[in-house]
Specification:
The protein is mainly alpha-helical and 296 residues long. It is 68% helix and 1% strand. Helix 4 runs parallel beside helix 7.
């Protein structure tokens, strides 16, 4: 009788022997673990005030400012109903109108300005860049008096269009600087190829440059929108009742009768929602835009 196990396999190959299980390697905890843990701790510390504001909006006023803090409570929507009952929607619409229009105007005006300061290199382009930057160094309190007098003489006080123009001028420097940084990183070979194919400046801008810097434009637009949405100083001085924005509305919960923490937290949560939604919707473009030029 022939031993099958001792028979050599066909084609002259050695029999396949089962491999012995390899001993498991112990994972070493390196310095990356400590840095990751530290990043999580810092992130939680920064996020905790936002979480506490969100939770406080679902409390009663008697539970919002207790000592020690109330961690277990029955959630209620009474504060959100109270905020909506104080005509929150007109303030929200004013903020949306001023923020969206000023952001669109800033992008439309900043793109050709950045193009001229980066790819065309007009005369005195360094001085022009410094001028844009110097406007951000001027404190808003130094500008409010002439702005108020001009708006009053033009009959433009308490008007959303005035806020739109002010926010556009406020965001123009940062928009020009950001878009210029994206344009400088464009490959020169691509632009030269487009010009050799007969593309003029308008076609070059529309077909080559704008698609390549679209993530950067999205990041710039989101930052301009956030700055305009959170602006308080010009809004409280140039508006009264018709064009007041959400930050002005929030101040109404700080009165001589005390602080309405639960109601203020509910209103702050509602005020933060548009920015959070815009950031969440544009996060892919935002990351690509902010990292544009980091790796060439």
């Amino acid at each position: 009788m022939t031993d099958v196990g001792a028979r050599r396999p066909d084609h002259g190959q050695e029999p396949v022997r089962p491999r012995a299980p390899r001993p498991r390697r112990r994972r070493r905890i390196g310095p990356g673990f400590g840095l990751g843990l530290l990043a999580w701790v810092v992130g939680v510390l920064f996020f905790f005030p936002v979480l506490w504001m969100f939770l406080t909006g679902f409390k009663q006023e008697s539970q919002a400012s207790t000592d020690p803090p109330t961690f277990w409570f029955e959630p209620t929507l009474d504060q959100y109903a109270a905020v909506l009952g104080r005509d929150f929607v007109p303030y929200l619409l004013n903020s949306l109108q001023a923020s969206v229009l000023s952001t669109a105007l800033a992008i439309v005006l900043a793109v050709p300005a950045a193009y001229a300061l980066s790819l065309v290199r007009i005369p005195k382009w360094r001085d022009s860049l410094f001028f844009f930057l110097s406007t951000k160094l001027l404190p808003p309190v130094a500008m409010i008096l002439p702005l108020y007098v001009i708006a009053r003489n033009l009959g433009a006080l308490d008007d959303v269009r005035t806020l739109t123009l002010v926010y556009t001028a406020m965001n123009m420097p940062i928009a020009v600087w950001m878009i210029r940084s994206f344009l400088v990183e464009l490959p020169e070979e691509v632009l030269e190829a487009a010009r050799m194919d007969g593309a003029g400046r308008i076609r070059e801008m529309r077909s080559v440059i704008l698609p390549m810097i679209a993530p950067g434009l999205a990041a710039t637009a989101l930052i301009c929108f956030i700055f305009a949405w959170n602006e308080f100083f010009f809004a409280v001085n140039l508006t009264a009742s018709q064009a007041a924005t959400v930050p002005v509305f929030l101040v109404g919960f700080i009165s001589g009768e005390g602080l309405f923490w639960a109601r203020l937290s509910a209103a702050s949560t509602m005020a933060a929602l548009p920015v959070i939604i815009a950031g969440w919707a544009a996060q892919r473009w935002l990351v690509r835009g902010l990292s544009l030029g980091a790796i060439k």
